[in-house]
Amino acid sequence: MNEFKCLFSLRIARQLIKEGYSLVDTEPARKGSGLVFIFENTPEFQQALTRALKAKNA
Questions:
Q1: What's the pLDDT tens digit per position in 11-50?
Q2: Which parts of the chain fold into alpha helices (H)?
Q3: 3-class SS at 9?
Q4: Domain coordinates of the chain in residue numbers?
Q5: d(CA 37, CA 9)
């Protein structure tokens, strides 16, 4: 498993931060405009990310 997980969605990043997951860093996106949100990748984070993505698509 990778040590970090990069997200491009501000909405998902905000939701995960509200759930208590710490943002490690942000970087400018390499393609286009926007930011990349970097989180520590843990099994708990992966579960929270899966829930957030399912809620987004529901």
A1: 999 999 999 999 999 999 998 889 999 999 999 999 999 9
A2: 10-18, 43-57
A3: coil
A4: 4-57
A5: 8
The residues, ordered by sequence, that sit 6+ positions from 15 with a Cβ below 8 Å of its Cβ are: 52, 55
DSSP state string for 21-47: PPEEEEEE-SSSSSEEEEEE--HHHHH
Is 4 in a helix, a strand, or coil? strand
Give the pLDDT of residue 38: 98
pTM for the full predicted model: 0.88
Three-state DSSP at 53 gives helix
Which tokens go with 3? 């040590």
Check if the beta carbon of residue 27 is closer than 8 Å to that of residue 13.
no
